[in-house]
Every structure is written in structure tokens, then in C-alpha cells.
Design goal:
The complex is a heterodimer of chains A (about 625) and B (about 180).
Chain A: E1 7-12, E2 18-22, H1 25-31, H2 34-44, E3 59-63, E4 78-83, E5 90-95, H3 99-106, E6 110-114, E7 121-126, E8 129-134, H4 143-154, E9 160-163, H5 166-169, E10 177-179, E11 183-185, H6 190-196, E12 199-205, H7 215-229, H8 235-238, H9 245-252, H10 273-279, E13 281-285, E14 295-299, E15 309-312, H11 314-320, H12 329-342, H13 346-361, H14 367-370, H15 379-391, H16 396-399, H17 402-410, H18 414-417, E16 420-421, E17 424-425, H19 435-443, H20 456-460, H21 473-490, H22 504-515, H23 521-541, H24 553-557, H25 573-587, H26 597-602, H27 609-616
Parallel strand pairs in A: 1-6, 7-12
Antiparallel strand pairs in A: 1-2, 3-4, 3-6, 4-5, 7-8, 9-10, 9-12, 10-11, 13-14, 14-15, 16-17
Helix pairs in contact in A: 1-2, 2-21, 2-23, 7-22, 11-13, 12-15, 19-21, 19-25, 21-23, 21-25, 22-23, 23-27
Chain B: H1 6-9, E1 13-17, H2 27-37, E2 48-53, E3 56-60, H3 69-73, E4 79-81, E5 88-90, H4 100-104, E6 111-112, E7 119-120, H5 133-137, E8 143-147, H6 148-163, H7 165-170
Antiparallel strand pairs in B: 1-8, 2-3, 4-5, 6-7
The chains are: A alpha+beta (about 625), B alpha+beta (about 180).
């Protein structure tokens, strides 16, 4: 079992007790690593119905079997798993950079945090020497400042740090966990779970060898991946990066604007990937082991935000840009920098601000409530709101709960403007006119997200009639989901997905060459299916049902108003029911969306039968 | 120890990194440690990658100084420099890991092998038939295997292109 470190570390923050246990090969092969192994360890180490901020709610950090190797994009990932303070179901988020590889070299496949430290602490993992360190002096610092302070006090520049910002400390429900300055395990609010444990950071240094089973074979495979990554399969990420989406989605009438009021943005030209590359991008960098390089580092050249340096991606750009009606790229870049500074998910924070602006425009929040003029397009207000949400100042305190809970607190019709699924804010695809994607979003076990399924792909590429809900979409979503869970478990980067020309076959070959565990493409696909079922089972255990596979109110009730191809499109209840029925059937689930006993048996999950039985009571 | 004759050192080729192209991916570290130690280990790599901040990335290997301060600094005469290639050769029987050479190196190009407690320096993959493997594997072609003369030529050409950008463009030369 090479590739894996073979060891899981348990950290009880209440007592300070640490223990290790071996990782069993059977568990490793079935759940791979990353989110798969992380969710399984979460399930085994948690009790149902626990509040996400209860010390009993574990936070799991997992690397993948490829972490620390030269597999391009595979060498560097890590995943966090816990109960999400937004969805109250399973929360998971991955990040790349250099942290995951370092943790593997330190000798751990996973770290499970339980309990709550009495005072702020950070975990210092120096190979086998693991200790809790005082973090009082780090409390209030940004993730980047925390990383620098820890490197300085431990006197090693190559220490890698994953940490929370002020938002995580203040239990802002969209707080993220950041590493390597610009990388975030962003979604589902896991930074707040970390904050609830008084755990400021995890610092790792690893000096152990990572050995692989078949070195020559692995190098052959890596060479092939390198060649593909230099070719058209990764062109987008190497050139314009994800901001290429701006003009593509805008042309399709699929870029949500003003909190899903419209689906096109008039200032799209001024925030496009093309415009960014020409004026702002100073350098494109890569994560450990990557042969693609995608990370566009932008610098604001002039104006009030001059000198701002930040990583840029489509999703946060969209969220605090078009979704808030903001077309000022200087301010958008400043906003991304602020999100990283405070440690909030750059997507959700834009979702919340767009929501607040929508309420303001409809009179549900007044200028007195907000303390500022919150109309769409006011970029200064957008920046101020990032700060207030992160620090829970004024109305920011309510909004820091995320749009779903905030809408409940604000009352009246606020819920209609809360664009979320399972409590997690939407991402930048207007699913009113992307119906395969609508299904993918509805059933995503971590709430609204494009990265659990990628099923916008066939819609955007025109492979299906994107305005129509029909049978067959369930199969498309299932297949991409099974691939995406494998990608997130190995962990390789989603941006590299186009370079696995033969899908599971390529990925299984990498897995076997590294670990020495024989894995057929079908076994790997089955692992993907198993892990999707596992995500569903955790949600079922936590009380989520078919009604939680829902659409945001606006998606079902406000047809796209923009003149153009997508005009008039929305998702009806009939559409949603048809899509869900089709998907559940393909998944081998009941009409209520519960895996059948046959499905559990087929996927080798007979040890989960009790969850299904409990749910049917 | 006397310096190597100048005529010899002009032919030496070293591994050089172009920071404009380097993305900080550390593939060079992975392939180096795999080649030399049959394992992935950044600490055992003879070339080290460094990201000072997102905009500043570089990888550093032995610069083949002549005379070499590391050789001079070694109290046990464990290090010698090849006249033919400029490579610093390590006599493991003499090296006791005292690390005076590490202190003497201005580039941080020497590492202490964490288990063997002997120092390790880039040997330009002398045993590989097609030269340093990091150069071959660098996905960005940021690494080059070059003489110092070629390096200075490159810098000269680059700076001249920059200075005379307009004139060259007017003459129809793409810069």
C-alpha cells in the first residue's frame, strides 16, 4: 500500500490527547482518499444530529493516495470534511497548493479533529512530533499573516500552513480554510467549524520519502499527462483561465446578474478574461507537481486599489462582480483580496451581498438597516459589506449566517431572494436555462455547486437541449458525479479532467502505479458511485430528504427576462420532479431519494444499512 | 586549493532557471529526488524550488562557482571540483555533515541529506545519457542546461529587445 502514508492521526482538542491508528487497506481501496476517505472517517467518528459547532462534530482533513507524488495536479491536494454549518448535511471542500503534499510527507493520510481547545491553538505537525501550540498571538490575523508568523516563529520557510481568518474565528458560516496564501478550501463554511474548535491553523513539515510501487510505469504515465496538459485539453486554464467563462456564459444568457435578476451583464467586456489578461495578470503560477499552471495572479495597476495582488478565478469574480451588478474590475480584485484576507468563501460572500442588494432594492432592507446605500452596482458598498460580514458588524452579523438563515431572520418575503440550495449560496451558472446543470445542482450533496457534477458541460457545449427537462439527464448527471467524486478523492485537480482521455482507465492506471493496489477502471468507477452514495447517506442520517433537492425560489419563479436565446426560461416544479425521478431511478434510489438495500449491497456498503432503515421509520 | 583554469570553466554547463518562466510547481524537486533517491522528497532534491510570493518563483541548483567557496570551506577536504565539468564531487567517506559548505554557499544550492547526514550537490545527472533530468522534465521549459557565456548572451538579447522594442517592431521584427 504505497502512496498512502498508512496512518490516521486523531487530535482531541479538549484534552490535548493525540493518537494514531493505521489506515486499513480495504478502507483505502473502497474510499480512495480525499473526500471519499474523509466522508467515511467523518461518518465513523460522528454522531447524528450534532450541531456543526458542537465540539463533538469532528473536522476531518484528508490527503489522497497521489499526494506527495509527481502525478501532475495529484501531488498537492487536500480535503476538509465536516458537518456544514450552512447545509447541516455533509460539508466538504478541497484545496491545492503545497500543503497536501507536505502533510503526506509528514506521514498522515488524515487528521481527525474533535473537541474544542480552551484557548486558541494551532497544530504543529513536524513528522512524528505533533503538538498543540498557543495561538493567542495569531487570533485576528489573516491566513497569509498567520502563515508568515508561524514560519517565522518555527524558523522554517518551507512549513506549509492551512489556517482560518477572522471570519472563521467569528463563526461566519461561509468561512473558508486557506493555505499557501491564495488557495482556499472554500465552500460549506468549514472554516467556521475550525473556528468553533478554537483551532487557528494547522502547520506541517514533512521529511519522509514518498515511495511508489512502479516507478517506471508512473513516469511513463506522468510523461503522457505532461504532454496532454501542454495541449488543447488544458488550453483554457493556461491562457485566459476560468475568467474565459465571462464572455462564453454571457453570450449564452447564462451568467446570473444582480442576484439572478437577469442572465446577462452589460459590462461583461470590462470584466472578461481577455480584458484581465491584457491589463491585470502579472504572472501565472502552478501548484506543487502541476504541469498545467492555471493560477492567474492579478495586480491592480492604478487607482484607489493600486497594488492589490490577488489570485483570480471566474466564480468569485462573478459573485462579487455581475451578481452584485459590479463591473469595476479594480474593485472586484480588491474584493477577492479582502475575501482571502478575512477568510471567507469568495463565492458565497458575493451571493450574500447580491442577496442584500436585492432586498435593499425591494425595500426589505432600508438604508438605516444597512448603514449604507446598497444598490446593485455600488462597488464601494460591496467592499464594505465583505468587511462587515466577515467581522459580523451591523447588518453583517445577520448576513454572516448565510442567505438562508439570514432570510429567516429578516422575515417577510426575504426567502424569495435567497438564492441557495441546501443553505449554500449559488455559483455562477444561471441554471434557469441550463437544465442538466439544474439537476446536478439540486442533487449535489454539499449544496449549490457546479463542482460536484460539472453537468453544465453538456448544456454549455450544446450537446443537449439545455432549455428542456427530459429523461436521460439523470444518467448524464450520475456519470459526471461519479467521475467528479473520484477526482476529489484521488485528489487530482478538476481543471485537469480533460486530460484523462480514457477517463477511469487513466486514473486507475495512476492509482495502481502509485499504490501497487490493483484497481480496474470499473472498480474505480464503482468507488465513485459508492462515494456519491456515501455523501447522500450522511445527508439522510442528518435528516435531509427529497425536499432538500430543491431549486432557489427565483430559479423557479422568475423567468429569464433578458432579450436573447434564454429569454423566458425557468425551472418549473414539473421539470424538477421529472429530473429528480429520472436521476433517483438511475441511481437505484427510491422515489424519496434513499439508496435501496440492493444498491447498498451492489456498492459494497452493507455496513450502512442502518442509516437507510432509520430513515424509513 | 587552486582555481580551475579559466579556459576549462568556460565550457562548464549548469542548470539555470528563468524566473519569468518558473511557476513554482517543484516538478524539478520531484524528478531529482526520484532520480537520486528513488523516492519523492523535496528535502533530498539537489535543486530547490522557492516561492517568495506568488509573483516571485525560482528554482536553484549549483552555480559551479570557480573557485568554489564550498570546496574552500570544507575542513575535511571532502569536496573537490571537477576540472572537466565543474561539478562539486563529494567524498562520502570524508564528509561528516558539518555543513560548513552549506554556510559558504551564497545560493543555498547545497542540502544535507536528512538520513545519511552527508551533503548533496547537483551533479548535473552525469550518469544520465541526456543530461539533467530536471531540465528535461520542467513543464515550463524554465530550466536550461547552459554555459555562463550562453546565459549572458541570452540576457543581452533580452535586454536589447526590450530597449529597442519600437525600432524592431518598425522594422517588422516580432518582439
Amino acid at each position: 500500500m504505497l502512496g498512502y502514508a498508512g496512518k490516521i492521526l486523531h487530535v482531541d482538542l479538549t484534552t490535548g490527547k493525540m493518537e494514531t491508528e493505521p489506515l486499513k487497506e480495504e478502507l483505502a481501496k473502497k474510499y480512495i482518499g480525499g473526500i471519499g476517505l474523509g466522508m467515511r472517517l467523518y461518518l465513523d467518528n460522528s454522531k447524528p444530529g450534532v450541531d456543526p459547532f458542537n465540539p463533538e462534530n469532528p473536522l476531518v482533513l484528508a490527503t489522497g493516495p497521489l499526494s506527495g507524488t509527481m502525478v501532475p495536479t495529484g501531488g498537492n491536494g487536500h480535503a476538509f470534511v465536516s458537518k456544514s454549518p450552512q447545509s447541516f448535511g455533509v460539508g466538504e471542500a478541497k484545496s491545492h497548493g503545497h500543503f497536501g503534499a507536505e502533510m503526506k510527507r509528514a506521514g498522515y493520510d488524515a487528521i481527525i479533529f474533535k473537541g474544542r481547545a480552551e484557548k486558541p491553538v494551532y497544530l504543529w505537525v513536524d513528522d512524528d512530533a505533533v503538538q498543540l501550540m498557543d495561538a493567542k498571538h495569531l487570533w485576528g490575523k489573516s491566513p497569509a499573516e498567520t502563515e508568515e508568523a508561524i514560519r517565522n516563529e518555527l524558523k522554517d520557510f518551507y512549513i506549509r500552513v492551512a489556517s482560518i481568518g477572522v471570519a472563521g474565528e467569528k463563526l461566519v458560516r461561509i468561512a473558508c480554510i486557506m493555505n499557501d496564501r491564495t488557495r482556499a478550501a472554500g465552500r460549506c463554511g468549514l472554516g467556521a467549524v475550525m473556528g468553533s474548535k478554537n483551532l487557528k491553523a494547522i502547520a506541517v513539515r514533512g521529511s519522509k520519502d514518498i515511495k511508489v510501487a512502479n516507478q517506471e510505469r508512473l513516469l511513463e504515465l506522468v510523461k503522457i499527462q505532461h504532454e496532454r496538459m501542454k495541449g488543447p485539453a488544458a488550453r483554457k486554464y493556461r491562457t485566459l483561465g476560468t475568467p474565459e467563462n465571462v464572455l462564453v456564459l454571457n453570450a449564452l444568457g447564462a451568467m446570473p446578474t444582480n442576484n439572478f435578476t437577469k442572465a446577462t451583464f452589460e459590462a461583461a467586456d470590462k470584466i472578461s478574461g481577455e480584458y484581465l489578461n491584457e491589463r491585470f495578470v502579472a504572472k501565472i503560477i502552478g501548484c506543487s507537481s502541476c504541469a498545467m499552471r492555471c493560477e492567474h495572479i492579478a495586480v491592480v495597476p492604478e487607482g484607489p486599489y493600486k497594488g492589490t495582488i490577488t489570485r483570480i478565478e471566474y466564480e468569485p469574480l462573478w459573485a462579487i462582480g455581475p451578481n452584485c451588478g459590479v463591473g469595476n474590475l479594480d474593485a472586484i480584485l480588491k474584493g477577492m483580496d479582502l475575501s482571502n484576507y478575512y477568510g471567507v468563501d469568495g463565492i458565497s460572500v458575493g451571493g450574500i451581498i447580491g442577496f442584500a442588494m436585492d432586498l435593499y432594492e425591494h425595500g426589505l432592507i432600508t438604508k438605516e438597516d444597512a448603514g449604507l446605500e446598497l444598490e446593485f452596482g455600488n462597488h464601494e458598498a460591496m467592499l464594505e459589506m465583505i468587511k462587515r460580514i466577515s467581522l459580523r458588524e451591523g447588518i453583517g452579523d445577520t448576513l454572516a449566517e448565510g442567505v438562508k438563515i439570514a432570510a429567516e431572520k429578516i422575515g417577510k418575503d426575504a426567502a424569495k431572494y435567497a438564492v441557495h440550495i441546501k443553505g449554500v449560496e449559488m455559483t455562477g451558472y444561471d441554471i434557469r436555462g441550463l437544465k442538466t446543470a439544474a439537476l446536478g445542482y439540486a442533487v449535489s450533496f454539499r449544496g449549490a455547486d457546479h463542482n460536484r457534477h460539472g453537468s453544465y458541460g453538456p448544456d454549455v457545449a450544446g450537446k443537449v437541449n439545455r432549455f428542456k427537462a427530459e429523461k436521460g439527464r439523470g444518467k448524464i448527471v450520475k456519470e459526471t458525479e461519479d467521475m467528479y467524486t473520484v477526482i476529489d478523492s484521488l485528489i487530482v485537480c478538476k481543471f485537469s479532467r480533460g486530460t484523462y482521455f480514457e477517463g477511469f482507465k487513466d486514473l486507475a492506471a495512476l492509482y495502481s502505479a502509485v499504490t501497487g493496489i490493483e484497481m480496474t477502471p470499473e472498480e474505480l468507477r464503482m468507488a465513485g458511485e459508492r462515494i456519491n452514495n456515501l455523501g447522500r447517506l450522511i445527508n439522510i442520517r442528518e435528516g435531509l430528504t427529497r425536499k432538500d433537492d430543491h431549486m432557489p425560489w427565483k430559479v423557479m419563479n422568475v423567468p429569464i427576462p433578458d432579450e436573447g436565446v434564454a429569454k423566458g426560461s425557468f425551472v418549473s416544479q414539473a421539470d424538477l420532479d421529472l429530473l429528480l425521478d429520472d436521476y433517483y431511478e438511475v441511481r437505484g434510489w427510491t422515489r424519496e431519494g434513499v439508496p435501496t438495500l440492493e444498491k447498498l449491497s451492489e456498492t459494497g456498503m452493507n455496513d450502512m444499512v442502518h442509516i437507510v432503515r432509520e430513515a424509513s421509520k | 586549493m587552486a582555481a580551475v583554469p579559466k579556459a576549462e570553466s568556460a565550457k562548464w554547463k549548469m542548470v539555470s532557471c528563468d524566473p519569468d518562466k518558473c511557476t513554482g510547481c517543484s516538478v524539478c524537486e520531484y524528478i531529482c529526488s526520484l532520480t537520486k533517491d528513488n523516492a519523492f522528497s523535496t528535502q533530498k532534491s539537489r535543486i530547490r524550488s522557492l516561492r517568495l510570493n506568488p509573483l516571485v518563483n525560482i528554482s536553484i541548483a549549483c552555480r559551479l562557482c570557480s573557485p568554489a567557496p564550498c570546496v574552500t570551506a570544507c575542513p575535511r577536504e571532502a569536496l573537490t571540483q571537477s576540472e572537466q565539468t565543474g561539478v562539486i564531487m563529494i567524498d562520502d567517506d570524508k564528509c561528516d555533515g558539518c555543513s560548513w559548505c552549506i554556510e559558504a554557499c551564497d545560493y543555498g544550492a547545497i542540502t544535507l541529506h536528512p538520513e545519511l547526514k552527508k551533503v548533496r550537490i547537483c551533479d548535473l545527472c552525469e550518469k544520465e545519457k541526456d543530461g539533467p533530468r530536471c531540465v528535461k522534465w520542467c513543464p515550463e521549459e524554465a530550466l536550461d542546461f547552459v554555459t555562463k557565456e550562453v546565459l549572458s548572451q541570452k540576457a543581452r538579447i533580452a535586454v536589447t529587445k526590450k530597449l529597442f522594442k519600437e525600432a524592431l517592431e518598425a522594422a517588422g521584427v516580432k518582439v
